[in-house]
Amino acid sequence: MNKIKIDELISETSIMRSKDFVWGVATSSYQIEGAATLDGRLASIWDAFCEEKGRILDGSTGGVACDHYHLFEEDLDLIKSLGFSSYRFSIAWPRVVDINGNPNELGLLFYERLIDGMLARGIEPMLTLYHWDLPDHLQQIGGWTNSDVQNLFSDYAALVMERYGNRVKYWATHNEPWCSSFLSFDLGIHAPGKTDRYEAMAVGKGLLMAHGKAIKKMREINPSAQLGIVINPIVSFPHTSSERDQKAAEIHQAELNDFWFDPLNGKKPPECLDLPNLSMSDLFKPEDLDLISQPIDFVGVNYYTRAVIEQADNIRGYEQVNIPNVERTHIGWEVYPEGLEQLLKELQASWPMPTWFITENGAATDDVIVSGKCEDAQRQRYFQTHLGAVDRAISSGVPVKGYYAWSLMDNFEWAFGYSQRFGIVYVDYETQERYPKGSALAFKNFLLHG
Ligand code: FCB
């Protein structure tokens, strides 16, 4: 029996309890699909990165992952049986476009079956075009900073919209572009693992340009689609009240929030992000901002933790601090639900949107299966307190229309490999057996039995 009531902190009158509120689970292509070389799928930058020694904590790859490519019907059954009404998934660009830029029909067929499988079960698809698996040959020609690659992204977006636009209502261009720029090109932690802040900023801008181009084309093809982007904004707290730390926290927060939301709203990011010989007004020209700020219908927010920041003598001007005596999850991230409420209020005040979704929220815990069961009490509490935070933000006026738990099931957690389990469903990677954890059952109790 489940003792933790996941909706306990959601008020009785909350719109989160109405049938219009969207409850979903999220995944991404490279983290779950496997079948990395099947049916003409090309290599992505993550396939290449995983081959490099020392890049992935446990030396693993997404080559097989959860084998969702073959088990997707079963996984859709699981989503349905847990009571969720929506599934946020991503398309692997290298699966659906061949090396000459032509459609790969076998790859397209997979997503067609996946989408039709959702619709047959009454599950609303939310589609993400780019969850970090850039075709590797496009990185070889310069990646996102090359305007040809940005244009190819908009061609890919148009192709997918032509195919599935009659069946999919919600479309996001990028997932967490901060990760595919700063985390990948400045901090060197994600593919392709470079450490050049100037390049990271150029890539960030390139991702935004590609977003603008894709939105423009998709809007032309399907004016009734709901189009958006998924960001991982943060609240950054200064470690001390010193002016230096306050300034450092301001830079960090601007990098995670303003660098994305300002251009999306037609504005250049703040000067605190300027580097020697590179100002934000050099990087974002007025015509770039015009392209990037295409009207969109929603923004997805991915939230896991907050940041505590101190001043540092490096090119960034800051460093993240791990403060002691706070609750942390298995991956080391602080549990800080108040941050989600604060963040949503700040976002709506600074960059108002008609619709926000929580497109990811969840926790890694050190899960074990005992007699077929996994009691993930910390994860259940995590969901409970964060749902409470979302509810408080909504009642203060932030239009949040849905919530997606990360993740449907344990999967390939990027540079952490399989060492971190974020699923509400446990995956035995040896047998590909799925076991709903306590948190999945707690969601089910709430969603199916109120
Ligand atoms: C987010 C990613 C997602 C997953 C979670 C834990 O940054 O979007 O793919 O890795 O973190």
Essential attributes:
eight-stranded parallel beta barrel, single chain, TIM Barrel, three-stranded mixed beta sheet, globular, 15 helices, 450 residues, binds beta-D-fucopyranose, alpha/beta
Put the structure in a nutshell:
This protein has a single domain (15-253, 290-449), classed as Glycosidases (TIM Barrel, Alpha-Beta Barrel), CATH 3.20.20.
Please describe what this structure looks like:
The structure is a single chain. With 450 residues, the protein is α/β, with parallel strands linked by helices. It has one domain (15-253, 290-449): Alpha-Beta Barrel (TIM Barrel), CATH 3.20.20. The chain is 40% helix and 14% strand. It has 15 helices and 13 strands. The strands form 3 sheets. It has an 8-stranded parallel barrel with strand order 1-2-3-4-5-7-10-11, surrounded by 5 helices. Helix 3 (68-81) runs parallel beside helix 5 (105-120), helix 7 packs parallel to helix 9 (197-221) and helix 13 (338-350) packs parallel to helix 14 (377-395). The longest helix has 25 residues, at 197-221. It is globular and about 60 Å long. The two termini are 16 Å apart. The mean pLDDT is 98. Bound molecules: beta-D-fucopyranose (FCB). The site of beta-D-fucopyranose has 12 residues, from loops.
